[in-house]
Amino acid sequence: MLDLTDVILNDGKTAEYEFHLTMPTLTYRFGDFRIVDSTAVVLQIENKGGQKLSLTGEVELVVEFPCARCLESVSRRLKVSPELELDLKEKNDYIDGYYLDVDQVIHDEALLVWPERVLCRSDCKGLCVTCGQNLNLGTCSCADAPSDPRMAKILDIFSNYKEV
């Protein structure tokens, strides 16, 4: 939590803060993602008067994701640049009294730059659908099985009528 007493009590006051994140993971509905590394959060906060604050900032996070195909861990850098207008007269998730929850701000803003899909490499072969073998590390005895088990019967029909 960051103490904003000086900024909140003085209309027109602008201050810059440096803060180190304390959260070890980013938690979303699709799982927990470990923060491997991060720069210090640099925030500029301005009291606009009328109990309104303007917040801008920047931080870079290195987050560990599972590869979308083979599930191996992959680290990706996320640049998070929050730009918020906070009204102290309204309830919000970031300010409690004179304190700003920087971790919550960065957590929520990281979702806006979240990658759609993370691959360990562009030619990732993924997992065998039958045995679960990571096909980047080697083949398995069922590697020639159809990629969709529901198609197995249809492939059998076609193989019976194959011309030689």
Q: Give the terminus-to-terminus CA distance.
A: 74 Å
Radius of gyration: 25 Å
Q: Determine the mean pLDDT.
A: 86
Which structural category do the helix and sheet elements fall into? mainly beta
- Element pattern in H and E: EHEEEEEEEEEHH
- Number of helical segments with 4 or more residues: 3
Low-confidence stretches: none
Shape: elongated
Q: Level of helix content?
A: 10-25%
Major β-sheet profile: 7 strands, antiparallel
Assess the beta-strand content as a share of residues: 35-45%
Q: Please count the beta strands (DSSP E, at least 2 residues each).
A: 10
Summarize, please:
The chain is mostly beta strands. About 15% of the residues lie in helices and about 35% in strands.
Describe the model.
- The model has no long low-confidence stretch (mean pLDDT 86).
- The longest helix is centred in the middle third of the chain and has 9 residues, at 102-110.
- A hairpin with a 2-residue loop joins strand 3 and strand 4 (31-38).
- The chain has helices spanning 5-8, 102-110, 152-160, and strands at residues 2-3, 14-19, 25-28, 31-38, 41-49, 52-66, 73-80, 83-87, 95-96, 99-100.
- With 164 residues, it is mainly beta.
- The chain has 3 helices and 10 strands; from the N terminus they run βαβββββββββαα.
- Strands 2, 3, 4, 5, 6, 7 and 8 form a 7-stranded antiparallel β-sheet that branches. Strands 1-10-9 form a 3-stranded antiparallel β-sheet, with no helix packed on it.
- Helices cover 13% and strands 37% of the residues.
